[in-house]
Amino acid sequence: MKLSRNGSTPLERTLHYLWRSGKSNRFALGLKPSLNILAGFTLVELMIAIAVIAIIAAVGIFTVNQQLPTYRLRSDARTIASTLMMARMKATSSGLQHAIEFDLDSSPQMYRLQHGNANTGSTIWTDETYYRRLSTGVNIASVKDDIATHTSGTARIIYNPNGSSGTGDIRLVLGTITTDGYQILLTPTTGRIRSEKVQNDEWE
């Protein structure tokens, strides 16, 4: 490329002129970016952004902590209902009675799957490997079976090979609050399971 008298090419002089005149185009920016483009966050802006993120995180954690006990209660109610359904399925497929035994004195409370003989009056029950413990803060207030309503000790809800069940009424609450919670009811003739949220004096 031919040089001018001052040793620069026409292209260099044009780019230098555009930059000196303050005109914005890609050639001028490519020659020497402005200071505004190179500038990042200031310390104040960074501190404000961190503060906003911290507030949002704190609100999120508080909300989760408030909802966590309710989530645990609902989850345990669903798990117990599904375990009862499994006991019914095993009873009908194996021809043996199956039961869910609740240990109300353990801490945390727990329940296990058992099987017995084919007669309604089974007295010997064998534990299977399936057992579950209740989540922290969730308690079984009472379990009603064929014998009585239990608030301590053990209770056993039985399923027969024809799909019918014994009496079953399980009440789950948070801590010692017995007004609100979940109730799991069985229909003995069909073994149907119904789980629902209960408030105040709506317990059946």
Sequence-ordered SSE layout with sheet pairings:
Layout: H1 10-21, H2 26-31, H3 35-38, H4 43-94, E1 98-103, E2 110-115, E3 126-133, E4 138-144, E5 149-150, E6 154-159, E7 169-174, E8 177-187, E9 192-198
Antiparallel strand pairs: 1-2, 1-6, 2-3, 4-5, 4-7, 7-8, 8-9
Number of E-state strands: 9
| Fraction of residues in β-strands | 25-35%
**Total number of distinct structural domains:** 2
Order of helices and strands: HHHHEEEEEEEEE
- Secondary-structure-derived class: alpha+beta
Ranges where pLDDT stays below 50 over 5 or more residues in a row are none
Q: What's the number of helices?
A: 4
CATH topological fold name of the largest domain: minor pseudopilin epsh fold
Largest sheet features = 5 strands, antiparallel
